[in-house]
Write a structure and sequence with these properties.
The protein is α+β, with helices and mostly antiparallel strands. The protein has 4 domains: 38-112, OB fold (Dihydrolipoamide Acetyltransferase, E2P) (Beta Barrel), CATH 2.40.50.140; 127-203, Beta Barrel (OB fold (Dihydrolipoamide Acetyltransferase, E2P)), CATH 2.40.50.140; 220-290, Nucleic acid-binding proteins (OB fold (Dihydrolipoamide Acetyltransferase, E2P)), CATH 2.40.50; 302-428, OB fold (Dihydrolipoamide Acetyltransferase, E2P), CATH 2.40.50. The protein has helices at 25-31, 70-73, 78-83, 108-126, 160-165, 198-216, 298-301, 374-377, 396-399, 402-405, 425-428; strands at residues 43-51, 56-59, 65-68, 89-96, 104-107, 129-138, 141-146, 149-154, 179-188, 193-197, 222-231, 234-238, 243-247, 268-277, 282-286, 307-316, 319-324, 328-333, 354-363, 368-372, 410-412, 419-421. The strands form 5 sheets. Strands 1-2-3-5-4 form a 5-stranded mixed beta barrel. Strands 8-7-6-9-10 form a 5-stranded antiparallel beta sheet. Strands 11-12-13-15-14 form a 5-stranded mixed beta barrel.
């Protein structure tokens, strides 16, 4: 070997650095993608070397040039095509190895479609949603594009709130042009099937919002919400992505028969956060806790002898309950409904009746108020006339238990001639 020559098979360079043994052709191709041969049906990246109104000329590796023809470009989103410039790198699909002019025939449309199917699969695997525009409808639901792929939203997969607001006639047509946040629930590339669900996306969104809200909320907080639905046991309040419950007992300080007596669906109101069950993700709310406890200031607003407007709320064997100013409830004992003999309060009043009543006693510590109807509607001389026609007198059968079940006891009032009616504990326990 002459001086200065280098042995090609040596493992060392002239400066002593170590090099690997001679590389195989496959290894060279792997390290140099430009040298790899094109294969029909593959998707590769190419660089636009020329663009005109009819086609794109694309450089795909060092010894190949391909063409994307006008017919293919027409199938691609026009905004995307218009945005392309010479020098841009784009994905292309190899259709044919050579046309009549010696160019590789490429498809931008097929490459974009395949790329969108790959993205759809990634979103499906990640269980993530996306916002898509409704482009058309059919009998069963909506068509929403995912890039170049047409996705289908069955009517059953629309969010319930949206379905309730749709007109029954031509219900889908009103949604064309609107954007929906949907989640992919099925991907089948072979069958060209992409199924979307607004319902699943909404549930996922509500779940995240609920988790975030539960982390932020503290017991005692006051938060704004909207009445979303009513049940016999309470009112559900939408707090912005999650719901809380105002139990029947927390709607008002007075006795409530049904939530509709206090609120209605759609009402916006402030609510007090009563308790939070993090494990079961439930929020207990209260409406009445934002209002003063009425019995604590009853004597500031009401006095014995005062005549007030009220509504009959409930009937029992021993009397009728009435709500005053939609704040306090008092009892009209059966003996204070009428001076005539009656067997049941329904003989004089009905639930829902609006009446004028006289307050005859107030017991703030026991949260009791005695009311009288007859002291407003009848002459004063009949109020205490036990011997007048129709006066109620216990029968002999009742004498044995009169001490426990006597309906009334008359006590002179220091401020008026009216009498105070005392209701027994046994009777109140029946309420």
């Amino acid at each position: 070997m002459q001086k200065g020559e280098v042995e090609l098979n040596s493992n060392h360079t002239t400066n002593g650095d170590f090099i690997e043994q001679e590389m195989t052709m496959a290894e060279l191709l792997e390290q140099s993608p430009d040298l790899q041969p094109l294969v029909r049906g593959q998707i590769i990246k190419g660089t636009i070397v020329k663009k005109d109104s009819h086609e794109l000329l694309v450089n795909v590796r060092s010894k190949y040039e391909g063409v994307v023809k006008a017919k293919d470009l027409e199938r691609v989103n026009q905004e995307y095509v218009d945005s392309l410039e010479e020098g841009d790198e784009i994905p292309v699909y190899v259709v044919h190895m050579e046309d009549d002019d010696g160019y590789v025939v490429l498809s931008l449309n097929k490459a974009v479609v395949e790329h969108d199917w790959e993205n759809a699969q990634k979103l499906f695997d990640a269980e993530k949603g996306f916002e898509g525009k409704v482009v058309s409808t059919n009998k069963g639901g909506l068509i929403v594009n995912f890039g170049s792929v047409r996705g289908f939203v069955p009517g059953s997969q629309l969010d319930a709130a949206r379905i309730n607001n749709l007109e029954k006639t031509n219900q889908w047509n009103s949604l064309i042009g609107q954007k929906l946040y949907v989640k992919i629930i099925e991907v089948d590339r072979r069958r060209n099937r992409l199924i979307l669900s607004e319902k699943a996306a909404a549930e996922e969104t509500r779940k995240r919002q609920k988790e975030a809200l539960l982390e932020e909320l503290q017991e005692g907080d006051v938060i704004q919400g909207q009445v979303s639905s009513l049940a016999d046991f309470g009112a559900f309040i939408d707090l912005g992505g999650t719901e809380g419950l105002i139990h029947l007992s927390e709607l008002a300080w007075t006795q409530v028969s049904h939530p509709r007596d206090i609120v209605k669906v759609g009402d916006e109101l402030d609510v007090h956060v009563l308790n939070i069950d993090y494990e079961r993700q439930r929020i207990g709310l209260s409406l009445k806790r934002l209002q003063p406890e009425p019995w604590s200031q009853v004597l500031e607003n009401y006095q014995p002898g005062q005549v007030v407007s009220a509504e009959i709320t409930k009937l029992t064997n021993f009397g009728a309950f009435a709500r005053i100013d939609n704040i306090l409830e008092g009892l009209i004992h059966i003996s204070e409904l009428s001076s005539k003999s009656i067997t049941h309060p329904r003989d004089v009043v009905s639930e829902g009746d609006k009446v004028q009543l006289r307050i005859i006693s107030i017991e703030p510590d026991k949260r009791r108020m005695g009311l009288s109807l007859k002291q407003v509607t009848e002459p004063e001389e009949t109020w205490n006339d036990e011997n007048s026609e129709g006066a109620v007198t216990p029968s002999s059968d009742e004498d044995a238990t009169s001490e426990e079940t006597s309906p009334t006891a008359e006590v002179e009032s220091e401020s008026s001639d009216s009498t105070e009616v005392v209701t027994t504990e046994a009777e109140l326990e029946q309420v």
